[in-house]
Amino acid sequence: MSTLRHVTPVEQHTMSQLKLVAPLAGWATRLEEVPDPAFAQRMVGDGIAVDPTSAELRAPCDGVVLSVHASRHACTLRTPTGAEILLHIGIDTVNLRGEGFTVHVREGQNVRAGQPLITFDMDLLARRARSLVTAMVVTNGDAHTITGRVEDREVSVGELLLEVQGGEETHPGEVNGTTAERHVRLLIPHGLHARPAAAFARHARLHPGPVNVGHKAHTVNGKSVVALMSLSAQHGATLTVTVRGEQAEQVAQELVDLVTSGLGDPILPLAESPAAPVEHVRAPVAALVPFTPDTEVLLKGTIAAPGMAVGRAVRVIEEQPELTRAGRGLLEENQRLTEALSRVRQDIEAMISREGKGSAARTEIFRAHLALLDDPELADAATQELQSGYSAEWAWRTAVEKQVRVLQGLKDSLLAERVDDLRDIGRRVIALLTGKGGSRVPAELPTDTILVADELLPSDLAAVPPGRLVALCTAHGGPTSHVAILAAGMGIPAVVAMGDAALRVPEGAQLIVDGDRGEVHVHPPAAAREATLHAIAARASRREANLARAHEECRTADGTRIEVVANLGRPGDAASAFAKGAEGCGLLRSEFLFLDRVTAPSEEEQTAQYQEIADGLRGQHVVIRTLDVGGDKPLAYLPLPEEENPVLGLRGVRVSLRHPELLRTQLRAILKVKPTGVCRILVPMITSASEMRAVRAMVEEERRALGITAPVQLGAMIEVPAAAVMADRLAADADFLSIGTNDLTQYALAMDRGNPHVAAQLDGLHPGVLRLVAQTVEGARKHSRPVAVCGGIASDPRAAPLLIGLGVTELSATPSVVPDLKAFIRTLTLPQCVEVARKALTFESGDDVRALVMSTWPGL
């Protein structure tokens, strides 16, 4: 046990010098190592962190307790020199809502160095919190400076840790200008804790005049993290923001907008009726008239997994069970819910165990379901409902729908698709509680089953016996949903977002599902079914032959070198892509590291993941796209303003240049991957050469700082028409160009690809889009820069001769299509591709272009 050495008041602060001792034992580390940007980026203030080995937080000096957070995980002291010291136990411990903490002091109490402040349950925190690392920071750093610190070694309780120089804060003189006041509702689930308080204070400090925040009878300095935390403002509180000085109205509105957006935390809208769960409402199925058997119908949707299939429709109907609202006592209902959760957990664990290493994506999805079952927010919400007298099933559904509203409130299309996973877990638990069984899919299925549903859930597919399912199609859902990922992993075609017309498909109807075109034929004639089956058999034979040659270099029949590489979205994809013959990675979507979490990934974590991908590709090049978020893909830990037109707002490189430290961390992580130079850097949403030069400057600075002498290839992603038109200027500052045809198509055609009303009309082979590709290649040629295509049409064989004819030399495709794509390219000649591409540019529609390609190469 450590012996506490008491530091006397004279030792603690001589004149304006303050000495702070270790508040607990452990490993002293830099704030940059704390897995929370509020601390790591010094948004809260400067200081030190300790990874604790003792479970009692003690006062680091003499002082007065300014505040103890409502969740008991943090407290603040004011020293005789005026420094305000925040002591914050663990990361995301606010989520525990006080569980595991015991406070020994009260606000306004005088304490001496070494006096116990808070004790905590280390075992509980280790299980429930993201980290035990405890931060000690000086929050009023404008008046105090850290002149010495102990770090990167073990420390004992009471050992000198920080030296702080400074005195009482200076106060500004008279402020000219106007006064603006705004009222705003706080919708952060855990209230104004350290992270959102730091975000608010950081923005408030940009204003030279006073900023105050009021809650109930208290008003504090809005530039002080500690003062904001002392308000103890919880979810639903109304804050009054008052700003004085020049542009007060504008500043006040900006601060209110930040609070409304969550200050980097997710928001939880106030429940309109907290007792009643919100239902997942869809169009009444009974009101939809089934298609008549004697009429062929063509339905169009969004491609979720490629391929073709012929089979019979098996309808998956969602039945909402009647739930008993009133419980039979807290103990009994709590026991029922605990047993149901345990049973579902066992079922999922058994499925993962059976899966083994067969499908990394499938295993990851169901591990995510296990994490949802253990989510403390979900458990707390259900417990509150049980304590209010409701039944286990009613409490669980209420808790699930409350969390669903949180995700939907984030206005993130990717997180919105994760809502289905949450509903899946909710449905499985309720099915057990109500005795309605597990899966919605019938136990007995024919061997040519095509599932047709409003939406499908991962547990639906997990329940299907092997060899029974040949395709699936849904009225709703997205191409990046977990069900779409599972379908691709199972090798079955899938078409989603077909609209309510999909619900008119009758049980047992004959279907042809074309996952390559995003089409479903209902009641096709016998001849069409037979022709499709022959085509599927022929395709299977060709694929076997193509796979055998997949690792050979790809050249056209007349010798033109075309690199066929893969689009990747996670480390597990790399080995599969290599096995399919991919010659590298043309687009690594690095968002997998940043989404679905509350803090940014560390430099070390990123490097490890990138290295795993590079290793999986056996030294072939990896093009890593820098973080492409913002707009319709916000991050919980990155405060950005809410936007009416998010796809036209802060996203891609615009976000990176607005938050350069986030970008620099990613650049360093990429540069550290071995062998040096295996990774190339691709910058998304470029619209001007100045953006490229700004990123290039950062790359060069970080490269020199790491002692790397070899040059680093930096590319510009062409996703907006302006970039295509200005390709000659961009190519002067970029080593290569890569065309993202998905975004380029939506911007060129003014059709939001997330809008179900127009998504089906998006056509990457529209002559207008192809002309932009041609302009990009022409601009790149002026500087001898290569051009790649990494968007959706790179995976479409019908697009390959057009892109090659326009001068594209690299196609980055979905790994599964690589063998077939390489085989088809080997049959082409460059003059023929050039001729067809030039003719396509003169047409009026994408359909005309396809007809031209199909007539030239009938076997497609």
UniProtKB/TrEMBL annotation:
Span of domain PTS EIIA type-1: 36-140
Subcellular location: Cytoplasm
PROSITE patterns cross-referenced by the UniProt entry: PEP_ENZYMES_2, PTS_EIIA_TYPE_1, PTS_EIIA_TYPE_1_HIS, PTS_HPR_DOM, PTS_HPR_HIS
Cofactor: Mg(2+)
Domain HPr residue range list: 179-266
UniProt enzyme class: transferase
Catalytic activity: L-histidyl-[protein] + phosphoenolpyruvate = N(pros)-phospho-L-histidyl-[protein] + pyruvate
Molecular function terms, GO-annotated: phosphoenolpyruvate-protein phosphotransferase activity
One Pfam match: PTS_EIIA_1
Chief location of this protein within or outside the cell: cytoplasm
Statement: the UniProt record of this protein carries the keyword Metal-binding: yes
Swiss-Prot/TrEMBL keywords: Cytoplasm, Kinase, Magnesium, Metal-binding, Phosphotransferase system, Sugar transport, Transferase, Transport
Domain of life: Bacteria
Similarity annotation: Belongs to the PEP-utilizing enzyme family.
Name assigned to this protein: phosphoenolpyruvate--protein phosphotransferase
Organism of this sequence: Archangium minus
Gene coding for it: ptsP
